[in-house]
Design brief:
It is built from 15 helices and 13 strands. It is of the alpha/beta class. The protein has a domain of 263 residues: Alpha-Beta Complex (Spore Coat Polysaccharide Biosynthesis Protein SpsA, Chain A), CATH 3.90.550. It has an 11-stranded mixed beta sheet with strand order 7-12-8-11-6-1-2-5-4-3-13, with helices on both faces.
């Protein structure tokens, strides 16, 4: 019996070890491809004539949709960052999704809104509209107030109903964009507008930054470890993974914080889905299905490494677990919904490169992770494994976790040069102990997310703000919602 137990522990150990070695090789390939692609994009960016694009009347106009629900802490800065954009022609559609705080009041103060009675066609059944308003101060800005009930997806869809231009940029209301964000992204779209149907780019965390009138005027990456680890996660996801997947037209998620989509494709897809916990990943998977159905068109979804903006991340462990719980639920929902794409030749590299990763790591990874730790620890306690093996396994897991963060960190810093030397060293050192500290917070979130998925939880919980931010100075006194006939 002891021999059988010993053999079972050893077999299980090598199965788990093989899993991590395979994953390490996968990350290495992604990291190296991302490293190369990031450098190529950097050279392209340096050669772009942005002044010509800004002055040209042929530059593609863009509709920006900003959904907002109880965003009084950030709405003023987020709005101002859109007004600060260096782009020749764009419109802004703000959707107040039944806010119960001062969100709408701040918009009144900032925009000098008047009610209008323009025709409104709801193409997505996005919910009952309470009011439609235009800005006197900024004629290219429209505010739509709607009743809640369809999560963020319903608010975005309501904005799509009003969007007039070929490309639509969806931005979260807690995101402060860089002035050149839209220009740098659309410069890539301009090169192939008939084939590029979706574009994402990197955005980091604004926590601890100094923001004035919609501009980040002071960056400090020597933040609390909880925030710094989230930044490393963003780097892993955007630079370490998505940049490489994009190279193979297998990018799985245009993040909801900032994403550009071709409007006609969104309309054909039926807009964003309110039936899932997160609307962005489900839409991207659905777009890949659309790409497969129109293979002759050569449609592509692209990821770029440019810093387009900054968003607020969770500031407490509890809030972080809640957010990652929802993200994990959405990943399981979407992966299972589109399981027919797995290793299906019809879906190309998305089916053979991206989806296997999602099944083996994003969905089943938590079981492998907990199982490997349980087998190793129990094997040690029962005398099957010696102390050297236990220590070796923990060292391997620590280095594996560090490796997945260090490679994208180096690649990102090489091209963007955002971090001061002390900040780069700080992030690098944190990555070395991530497995012993931060990783367990994410494990809890993934475990609870998996449990909630099987319980049928499909709610959309926002992240509580760190503090209530002032609306900032306004150019004129509040004028309220006036009546006007248009």
């Amino acid at each position: 019996m002891e021999t059988l137990t010993h053999q079972m522990f050893v077999a299980a150990f090598f199965i788990f070890l093989g899993y991590y070695v395979l994953l390490a090789v996968y990350y290495l390939v992604l990291g190296l491809v991302g490293f190369t692609v990031g450098h190529q994009r950097g050279e392209e960016d340096a050669g772009e004539d942005y002044q010509l694009l800004a002055a040209s009347s042929f530059t593609l106009p863009v509709s920006i949709v900003l959904p907002a629900h109880n965003e009084e802490a950030w709405i003023a800065d987020s709005l101002q960052s859109l007004l600060n954009l260096n782009y020749p022609e764009f419109e802004v559609v703000i959707v107040d999704d039944c806010s119960t705080d001062r969100t709408l009041e701040i918009l009144k103060e900032r925009l000098e809104l008047v009610a209008v009675h323009n025709p409104y066609t709801d193409n997505f059944q996005s919910g009952r509209i309470r009011g439609l308003y235009k800005s006197v101060r900024h004629p290219h800005v429209t505010v739509l107030s709607k009743e809640s009930g369809q999560k963020k997806a319903g608010a975005v869809n309501a904005g799509l109903n009003l969007a007039r231009y070929k490309y639509v940029c969806v931005v979260d209301a807690d995101t402060v964009l860089e002035p050149d964000a839209l220009m740098r992204v659309m410069a890539q779209v301009e090169k192939d507008p008939e084939k590029i149907i979706g574009v994402g780019s990197y955005f980091g965390l604004v926590n601890g930054f100094e923001v004035e009138n919609g501009r980040v005027v002071g960056k400090n990456f020597l933040r609390t470890p909880l925030v710094a680890y989230q930044e490393l996660e963003y780097l892993r996801s955007f630079i370490g993974n998505r940049l490489s997947w994009s190279q193979w037209n297998a990018m799985p998620n245009i993040a909801g914080g900032f994403g550009v989509w071709r409007r006609d494709v969104l309309m054909e897809l039926g807009g964003f889905s309110s039936e899932v916990s997160c609307e962005d990943i489900e839409l991207t998977f659905r777009a890949h299905e659309y790409i497969a159905q129109h293979r002759e068109a050569g449609y592509r979804i692209v990821m770029l490494p440019y810093v387009v903006g900054w968003t607020e991340g969770p500031h407490t462990i509890r809030n972080l677990i809640g957010q990652r719980n929802r993200w994990h639920r959405a990943t399981i929902e979407t992966t299972w919904k589109f399981r027919h794409m797995l290793c299906n030749p019809r879906y190309g590299k998305f089916g053979f490169v991206t989806l296997p990763y999602f099944f083996l790591y994003e969905v089943l990874g938590i079981f492998f992770e907990l199982g490997s730790i349980a087998v190793t620890v129990l094997g040690f306690l029962s005398g099957v494994f010696d102390l050297k093996l236990l220590v070796g396994f923990l060292v391997f897991m620590t280095l594996f976790q560090a490796f997945t963060s260090l490679l994208p960190l180096v690649a990102f810093h090489r091209e963007q040069k955002l971090f001061r030397p002390s900040e780069f060293v700080y992030l690098a050192l944190l990555s070395l102990i991530e497995f012993a500290v931060y990783r367990w917070i994410i494990v809890v979130a993934r475990v609870t997310g998996t449990i909630d998925y099987f319980r049928g939880v499909r709610t959309y919980e926002g992240v509580p703000r760190a503090k209530q931010r002032a609306a900032g100075p306004t150019a004129a006194a509040p004028l309220g919602l006036q009546q006007a006939k248009v």
